[in-house]
Specification:
- By secondary structure, the protein is α+β, with helices and mostly antiparallel strands.
- The chain has three helices and seven strands; from the N terminus they run αβααββββββ.
- The protein has helices at residues 2-20, 56-74, 78-95, and strands at residues 30-42, 103-114, 120-131, 137-145, 154-161, 182-193, 198-200.
Length: 202
Amino acid sequence: MRIGFLIILLSCLCSSVSAQSPGPQTVPDFTVVKHSWTKERINWEGDPFGGPVENFEDMRRRRVDERRVERARGSGNTAEAAKVEREMRSEQIIKTRPPAPPRYAFLYKVSLRNNATKTIKAIDWDYIFFSGNTQTETGHLEFTSEEKIGPGKTKELNVMARHPPAKTVSVYALDKTERQGLDGQVVIMRLEYTDGSIWQRP
């Protein structure tokens, strides 16, 4: 009788421990298909190395000012002629002023496939950059994209930012070698679904 009681007691204790133990963590069913980044020129207004080009309106205005100078001189009004000439020189200086240095923004992309049975409505994702040689982290950017991705669907998320992937990448110059030794990885940090449920990376 006593043995039977002990067996029942042990069985109850085991059931209690099993019920209190945390179950396996739910992992969202998604796939990072691909990711990339590109450098985009901003405030582009033609060839920055080209000289000033006189368009039709500039030429017409220059001829008008030249005639004003001629009329002022012909009438003996040297003060008016000198004033118009100063204005013309000032205008020419502005037009021939060297262009501002080029500046670049950065377009970050990630393609995400939703393999779950519910729709994603917002994604927090980090783009982490590190040296391919030392595996040292050299850049870490955090993004939030409010994009709906239905079950079984793939969508490309795009974010334009002024921050470069790493300090070694210039925002003022285009260098074909700056990608060398720079690797990147996208990590999904948080997913919010249309049914109100949320997954958060621990």
